[in-house]
Amino acid sequence: MKTYKRLAFSAALMALAAIANSNCLPEKATPGDVRVVLECELSETTGEIATTKTDQMIFWQSQAATYEELAASYESSGQDSLQRLSNNLKARAKLATADIGRLEQTGNVCDLAAYKDNSWFWGAGLRLNRINSRQDARDLGQAGCASTPEIPSISIVDHVLQACESAQLCNQGLKAAKPLAEALRNSRALAQVNSQNVLSILQQQTIEKDEAWNRYLYESKPLWPWELAVTDWWHDRYDDTYTQGFRRPPPKQIILMHPSIGAEWIDNATDGDRLAPTIYVEVIGINYWNETNRWFKDSWLSSLSGASLAVTVTDRPGINTAGVGPLLTFDNTFEVGINYYGESEFGLMVGFNLMKLWRDEYEKKVRNLKDARR
User: Fold this and answer.
1) Highest taxon of the source (predicted)?
2) Would you tell me which of 87, 90, 147, 243 could form a disulfide with 132, CB atoms 3.0–4.6 Å apart?
């Protein structure tokens, strides 16, 4: 009951603000007055508005319903431009509701959520920004963003101007747009508050993401440059739209044609050649560098981070030159494999990742690069 009382009080304050703005419309408006009238009616208002997630869910659901009712009203009266504007705002309000729902489920703030000011900011041009499409992927779930098709940018002033020009009198078009402007003003007022309130949350999330990237860069399995590129491509890290803001590192690493050296024991080899160095290539595989994403989280196998198919090359009398078999990686560091050389010949191998030789220098360069960009 308290929730509805607060919302009712908020609505009353906003209604009073609307009365204060009732003088925005001149007695005989012309198309040249549209921008001035809109700037007056969209002027910022203050008052108690929804702050808890439950209150906001109700608010955005109510806003979406308001825009839907207005769109239906404009459709019946033949005011196509205002109908299009209402439908665009309805899509934004529905997405804001969905983003609030994700926030309740995951506890993570979507960096570019539709309940924040970036989706409702119109600026001097009286145009709302485009909302990029989002796919319902794992990474988006971690970021707290709901999926959506693209919501295009839209000019408020152009659509109201069309309503003014298509009406018998410009005042009729402006009066028809008035409830839409009031609803939009209310949406913007809450979105601005949300943007201020989540700054501290986003700051903490950014710190957490930065720490995750540090772990990915310095503690994950060292990869060759082409593997880093494939991993980025696999997880769409080359997408420059950044609908989630500052992204998290990929949850897994793609292993591809990864050369390394190791020591291998073949019991049936001749004396003196049973333990010998070997060269191997991980042809294809994956590695879950972060413990939270691994196959076995709560068992003694929780340290198993990756698996790949390896091809080995060895030089032992009476043993085939090439072998093949699975290679397991533990805690991004230790590698153990079993290789088959044909004719019931097996080898047990302990691997050494060659990229470790360059890790210290690599880490130093990356840290210097990050410091230079701050």
Assistant:
1) Bacteria
2) 243
The strand ranges marked E within 2-158 are 127-128, 154-155
Q: Are 253 and 231 in contact (CB under 8 A)?
A: yes
Cα–Cα distances in angstroms (integers) from residue 138 to residues 145, 227, 274, 291, in the given order: 10, 21, 46, 16
Give me the residues paired with residue 347 across strands: 339
Question: What distance in Å separates the CA atoms of residue 35 and residue 160, rounded to the nearest whole number?
Answer: 9
Torsion sign over Cα 317, 320, 325, 331: positive
Q: How many domains does the chain have?
A: 2
Domain shared by 182 and 265, yes or no: no
| CA–CA distance, 7 with 84 (Å, rounded to integer) | 28
Residues 63 and 96 reside in one and the same domain: yes
* Nearest by Cα to 163 from 174, 178, 150: 174
Same domain, 26 and 73: yes
As a whole number, the mean pLDDT across the chain is 81
DSSP 134: B
Which two structure tokens, joined as six digits, stand for 367?
């840290």
Contacts of 263 (CB under 8 A, 6+ apart): 275, 276, 277, 278, 349, 350, 352
The alpha-helical segments, DSSP class H, found in 167-198 are 170-197
The range of the structural domain enclosing residue 319 comes to: 215-374
Locate 283 and state its tokens.
């042809």
Residues 44 and 162 in one domain: yes
In degrees to the nearest 10, what's the CA dihedral of 82, 83, 86, 92? Answer: -130
pTM for the model stands at: 0.51
Question: What is the separation of C-alpha 70 from the centre of its chain, rounded to a whole number of angstroms?
Answer: 31
Taking only the tens place, the pLDDT of each residue in 7-29 is 445 544 454 444 444 578 888 88
CA end-to-end span of the chain: 48
Q: Is residue 19 part of a domain?
A: yes
Beta carbons within 8 Å of 164's beta carbon, 6+ residues apart: 29, 31, 34, 170, 173, 174
d(CA 54, CA 305): 40
Q: Which residue has the higher pLDDT, 193 or 126?
A: 126
Dig out the tokens for 87 from the structure: 């439908």
Query: Which band of pLDDT confidence, cut at 50, 70 and 90, is reported for residue 234?
Result: confident
Model pLDDT, residue 195: 73
